[in-house]
Design brief:
The structure is a single chain. The protein has 261 residues and is of the alpha/beta class. It is 41% helix and 28% strand. It has two domains: 92 residues, no CATH class; 165 residues, no CATH class. It has eight helices and eleven strands. β1 and β2 form a beta hairpin. The mean pLDDT is 89.
Length: 261
């Protein structure tokens, strides 16, 4: 990972997490942490326990990073630095769920933003072989509209972790659990439309391997051989068993204008 890429990554990370960028120059970035980022990055549990106990106004830390070792100010950060890997792990943790707003401009008056639940799914068709399908779906929690390729659309929109000025959010009419169930129904319909040749072929491979296994053990007698045969047979059946697994990779709540889709 080149130093220019690290600098760009740090800028994207701190902007997405809502931190204030105080100074941004080539190979240098200075940020004011949010309360959440201070708690996750700075390891100050006793400070936060004290502040919250007495109800004092918290003061978050300011960090300065340089991606050029010759720079005069800031902590040098590179691919092997523990701080960067801490940020990587936080990105993975926080990236599973986001809340973002379309950064729209109002042409007079307040502009409504519609709530969307977006989920990215991985559908695994697995036997002795494995094939993964990725699907991104979004559902409008106000009117129930469902769209495919949701991720590709929102990536093209200007998004912000803060609600824009002169905008307001509409309250969801569909509960999150109901919305998730509706999206899983779309996934289920997709699965039913798939050709099941992969499963039939796996069963044929299983039949061939079981025949070989039986021929190997056919002249062997005794409990030890019978136990070994049954163990290997069960392992083959588990290996070739066709199964479909659906998992949610990540998702988020997006507040978008009525013209986003």
């Amino acid at each position: 990972m080149k130093q220019e890429a690290i600098h760009s990554y740090l800028e994207d990370f701190f902007r997405a997490s809502g931190c204030d960028i105080l100074d941004l120059r080539p190979r240098f970035i200075k940020v004011k942490l949010t309360i959440e980022m201070d708690k996750k990055l700075m390891n100050r549990p006793f400070y936060w326990h004290y502040v919250e106990k007495i109800g004092a106004r918290p003061e978050t830390q300011t960090l300065a990073f340089k991606t050029d070792p010759a720079g005069e100010e800031g902590d040098f950060i590179h691919f092997g630095s523990p701080r960067l890997h801490h940020i990587f792990s936080l990105s993975k943790e926080l990236g599973r769920y986001v809340r973002l707003y379309e950064n729209a401009r109002s042409n007079g008056g307040n502009l409504p933003l519609y709530p969307w639940l977006g989920l990215n799914f991985k559908i695994s068709f697995q036997c002795d072989l494995k094939r993964d399908e990725l699907m991104s779906l979004g559902i409008n929690l106000f009117n129930g509209t469902i769209v495919k390729a949701f991720q590709e659309t929102v990536e093209a929109l200007p998004l912000s972790p803060k609600i824009p000025d002169y905008c307001y959010t509409l309250a969801p009419m569909i509960k999150p659990l109901s919305a998730v169930n509706r999206l899983f129904a779309v996934i289920e319909a997709f699965i039913h439309r798939q050709d099941d040749a992969w499963a039939l072929e796996a069963r044929e491979r299983l039949r061939n391997d079981l025949e070989l296994l039986e021929r190997f053990y056919e002249d062997m007698e005794g409990d030890a051989y019978r136990d070994a045969f049954e163990k290997e047979r069960d392992a083959l059946m588990e290996q070739y068993k066709p199964r479909i697994h659906v998992s949610i990779i990540n998702g988020g709540l997006f507040y978008l204008t009525g013209t986003a889709f």
